[in-house]
Amino acid sequence: MLNHPPQHHDVLIAAERIRAHAHRTPITTCSALDKRLGASLFFKCENLQKVGAFKFRGACNAVFSLSDALCERGVIAHSSGNHAQALALAAKTRGIPAYIVMPSNAPEVKKAAVAEYGAQITFCEPTLQAREATQERIIAATGAVEIHPYDNYEVIAGQATAALELLEECPELDVVIAPVGGGGLLAGTAISAHAHNALIQVFGAEPRNADDAYRSLRAGQIIPSDNPRTVADGLLTSVGTRNFPILQEHLAGIVLASESSMIEYMKFFWERAKMVIEPSAATALAAIAENQELFVGKKIGVILSGGNADLNRLPWL
Amino acid sequence: MLNHPPQHHDVLIAAERIRAHAHRTPITTCSALDKRLGASLFFKCENLQKVGAFKFRGACNAVFSLSDALCERGVIAHSSGNHAQALALAAKTRGIPAYIVMPSNAPEVKKAAVAEYGAQITFCEPTLQAREATQERIIAATGAVEIHPYDNYEVIAGQATAALELLEECPELDVVIAPVGGGGLLAGTAISAHAHNALIQVFGAEPRNADDAYRSLRAGQIIPSDNPRTVADGLLTSVGTRNFPILQEHLAGIVLASESSMIEYMKFFWERAKMVIEPSAATALAAIAENQELFVGKKIGVILSGGNADLNRLPWL
Known about the structure:
The structure is a homodimer of 317-residue chains.
Chain A: H1 8-18, E1 27-28, H2 31-37, E2 40-45, H3 55-65, H4 68-71, E3 75-78, H5 82-94, E4 98-103, H6 108-116, E5 120-124, H7 128-142, E6 145-146, H8 153-169, E7 175-179, H9 184-196, E8 201-207, H10 212-219, H11 244-250, E9 253-257, H12 259-273, H13 279-290, E10 299-304
Parallel strand pairs in A: 2-10, 3-4, 3-6, 4-5, 7-8, 7-10, 8-9
Antiparallel strand pairs in A: 1-2
Helix pairs in contact in A: 1-3, 1-8, 3-5, 3-8, 5-6, 8-9, 9-11, 12-13
C-alpha cells in the first residue's frame, strides 16, 4: 500500500492493475445541456462502472495492491453506500473474504447488493462510534485489512484513473470537475488532471448543505460537517486527512449547489441525456449552473460519480 | 417517395440521406440482464437518437426524399407522440414548414417540445375523426405533404437504418427483435435483418393488451385493436396496410408481454443499465422474458425504440 500521496506514476500503476477488472467507461455529451449552460461538457460515465459508481476503481486498486500474505485474511470497511458494494466485489474478484459493517437501518436494496457479492455483513447501531467499534472487533478477530472509502492513498490512486481515461480521450479540456464528499474522487481527479496539463482548472462540486470542503479550504484546516442533510447521499461525509492537502495543492475552488438545483439538473439529465445518474453526480451539473460565470464558453470534463439512485423515491416526486 | 416496399438498396439510400442529420446511436450490453434472461443481448440505443426515439430516422428520410418543389409548402402529420417531434425537427432541418395536428388533451411537455422545433400546431378534439378532418382542412389550405408515422415506405426505409447499423457492428446475431405498434420500425428491422442474413429470426414484441399484430398475423388479415389500454403508449396504434405484408413475409413470430412484466423490466433496465427507456422499449425485454424458451442461449439484437418516459408519472410508483 502507498504511504505517500499518489503521483502520476502511481496512477498509471493503478490503471494497469484494475484494467482487467473495471470497465473503461464511455464519455458522452448532451447538446441540450451544453446549450443551457453555455459550455461544452464531456461526461465520464462512472454510472456505467461496475457496482454503478466510480468507487469500484479505488476499492479494486486497494485490494489488488495488497500482498497475498497481507490480504488472505480479508478486507473490511464500514459503509452503507457504494464503497460497501465496491469493496465486496473487489474482494470477490481477488478471491478473499470481505467484511462489511453496515448500520442496521441501511436500505434493504443495499444490504441485498452487498450480500449478493458474497460479503460477510455485520449490522450495528447507526452511529459512527458503533460502526468503528464493530469494525475494530472484527479486525481483532479476523486480521482483516481496513480499506477506508476515501482516506487511503491506494483508493485515491484508483479513483484517479477515471480522469486519466477522460483526458486520454478528451485531451483539450479547460476544466475538470468532480463532486466532493470525503475527497477520494476529487483528489485523484486533481492529480490526473495536473499531470496531464498544469493549466487545467480543477473544481470540486459540493452541496451547499454539506459544504465542509468549501469551508475547510477557506479556513486552511479541516472543519467537518455536523450532521449535514442533503439529497446527495454520497456526499454526506467530510473531507479526509489524506485528501485535504491534495485538494489544497490543486484546486481552483469548490463550487456549491443548492438542493433544488441538484434535483432540477438530475431530472434534466435523465430526461435529455436518457441516463440515470445519482444526486451526487448531479451536484456537479448544478454547481456549474449556479456558478455559470466561471464556466461559460469552456470545455469541461465532468466525472459523473454514479447512477445508484433509488427509483422508488425520486427527489422530484 | 418510394411507391413499393423498400428493398435493401432503398435502405442504403436512406442511410446515406439521413447520415448528416441523425445520430449513429451506440450499442450497449447489460450483463445483469443477460444473466437473468440466459441470453446475450445487444441493445441499439434509439433512446439516444434525436428527439429521443427511432422515429427521427423515418421522418428525416421521408422529408429529405421529397423534391424541392414538392416539399416547399411543408409537411403535415397528426400525432401526439414521438412522430410529431420527429417530423417537426426533420422539417426544421430541411428548412420547410411542419404542420402538426395534436389532440387538445396531449401532454403539455409534448406540445412544448413540438413547438420548440418551430412546428405550427393545430389542436383538435381527441378523436381520430377530428384529427383526420383537421389534417385534411390544413392540407387543402396549404398544400402540405402528409408524412404518415408508419404507413409510408420512406418512413419504413428510414426506420430500417437502425437495424442496418446494429448488424454492421454485431454481424453474428441469431435474433433481432423490435416492438410493434403501427409496424414501421418492425418492418424496417425485418428488411435489414434478412438482407444481412436470411437465417436471422425476426420477432416483434407487442403488449398482450394491444396484440393486434399478433392476432392479424394469425388471421392472415389486419384486425385492428379496439381502443387498447397499455402502459406502452407508443404501441397503441394498429398495424398499417403497407407494414402488414412485410411482417407477413419476414417474421418468425410476435411475442407478447404483460403489463406487469413490461414495468418490471423497464425498472430493471433503468436500475442496472442506468439508461432511461420508455415502456414501449421495455416491451421487447418483457416479451423475451415471457417467452424465454425461444431465446435462451442466443445472440439477440434489441432495438430500444426510445427514451421518452414521463418522469413525473413512473408506472412502478
